[in-house]
Amino acid sequence: MAEFESIVIDKQYLFSLLKEMIKINSILGQESNLAHYLFDEIKKLGMHVELEEVSPNRENIYAKYEFDTKGKTLTLNGHLDTVEICTGWNTDPFQPTEKDGKLFGLGSVDMKSGLACQLAAVKALIESDVDLQGTIHYTAVVDEEGFGTGAKKMLSNPNFGKGATDGVVISEPCYGQSPDNALPLGMTGKVLYKIAVIGKSAHAFTPEKGVNAVTDASRILTAVDVIDENPLIKKFPLPTEEDFGEGSFCVLKIEGGYKTYSVVVPERCDFELNRLTVPGETKESVKEDFNQFIKEMQIKSNVTIEIIPPFYLPYKIAKDHPLFQSLEESFASIFKKQPFTTYSKMITDANTFMGEGNIPTVIFGPRGGNLHAADEFVEMDSLVPAASVFTQLFTNFQKK
After folding, report:
1. What CATH architecture is 2-187+314-398?
2. What digits encode the pLDDT tens for the residues 11-45?
3. What is the sign, positive or negative, of the torsion defined by CA atoms of 166, 170, 176, 179?
């Protein structure tokens, strides 16, 4: 414990850093200013730091500090982007506002507070007088709220991606204190189907002479509607997995029929369908099983299925993996209890790092509320404990 007591989180640094980050607009597609701000802050800590362009004016940021050539490399990671501003805010989304122990602002919990806690942890490790081993990476990527291109770019970086680290810790707001913010032991994957249903045009007064694409599309959509429990309707058999159960479908978009009024049997209907997948499913298998199901429906229209970005593989990390054990022990040391854990039906950059890249990945971050909604906030009293978990996680991981 004496070792950890000498690794002290600079509370004022953490709070000030977070407030400055909230003031910087980093809405999806506009992350550059925040990346450059962090670049300057990281340089002050004496770290090697670099920017990598993902697309014009959108850069990932990577930093490295080597304590000793011995030991493991741990990568702290978060995303720079936030969602758009929605209606209903009672404060300026770009003006950090404290009230009743909460700090309000766009991205306050998703996930600028996580990034701030991680950098405060790095600062504490560098400035401590503890003889530390290993290497720490501090990384922040773009586009997590979009297509995940930042994480994919980082995964292919030879110095910070696959093959360059022993584990990744993403500071998403999973605080581990309750079932609602439990620490994920894995996440579902995601496939986005783009489906074209091509029928045959005819006069709408003689529909039997045509093939109605809208009607055929509705038959497919009814078959994946998990809400309707009508036993007379044949449902798509979603694969199940022992920890996740089964995945899910959601129709995101549909377009069919005339654009200008016309009494014509619709010859085309297009729709996009989101599906969460479970371990064991692949891009090839999810396309094939859906193709086969539609064939069995004997639909008259011609149906084509395309898988479009973003696509994510599911993943699981073993509870006895050294990285998760290190997180669990660090959590218990700070909070004097064990964290809640779960298998999450959601997607993060962990799906890229571990699902695609096979890099062991865990998730932990400060507690807050109203993610992707008005008046987003982070609970101020969760910040220093979160940063402390990150420091202990780094030192614990070296011992595994």
Report:
1. 3-Layer(aba) Sandwich (3.40)
2. 999 999 999 999 999 999 999 999 999 999 999 99
3. negative
